[in-house]
Write a structure and sequence with these properties.
7-stranded mixed sheet, 156 residues, single chain, Rossmann fold, alpha/beta
């Protein structure tokens, strides 16, 4: 669903914040010019690098550290930023960095509606972003847990 909605052209720079083992990064890397994975857990980055090598994906660079420290120090300007933060949502420094670098598109994957609403309010109230689509996904049937995938476009 994310791949279809993004309609990637192969020229984009994609940043996957909170990338984990590359579950979202690696399939998307096949459709962009460059992908950058940011993850705080060194073990997850090691696994992501192994997954990239096993799948012969060579256009991904991996950075270990917190997103709030890594994102503002990127040396390239991303066209797309994918956010899949923990339940606590994005640190305010991450939101501030996004508002500063203003990628064309954001994809926010969330397992917590409260922190998703908080972060979307900050992103959209700034006037820089507008929601283009929200897609709930029920990975855990018969429970109260629902993931949401939110697509935002930079407001012109």
């Amino acid at each position: 669903m994310i791949q279809q909605e993004l309609n990637l052209q192969g020229t984009e720079v994609l940043v996957d914040a909170y990338s984990g083992v590359g579950t979202l990064t690696l399939p998307l890397a096949k459709q962009v010019q460059q992908a950058i994975a940011l993850e705080s857990q060194p073990e997850a980055i090691e696994q992501a690098q192994l997954n990239a090598a096993l799948n012969e994906i060579t256009n991904v660079t991996f950075h270990t550290g917190t997103v709030e420290n890594l994102l503002p120090n990127l040396t390239v300007h991303p066209d797309v930023v994918l956010l899949d933060p923990p339940r606590k949502g994005c640190d305010r420094a991450v939101i501030d960095s996004l508002l500063h670098i203003q990628p064309e598109r954001l994809v926010y994957v969330s397992c917590n509606p409260a922190t998703l609403a908080r972060d979307l309010k900050l992103l959209c109230a700034s006037g820089h972003y507008q929601l283009s689509k929200i897609q709930p996904v029920d990975f855990f049937p018969q429970t109260a847990h629902v993931e949401c995938v939110v697509f935002l476009q930079r407001h012109r």
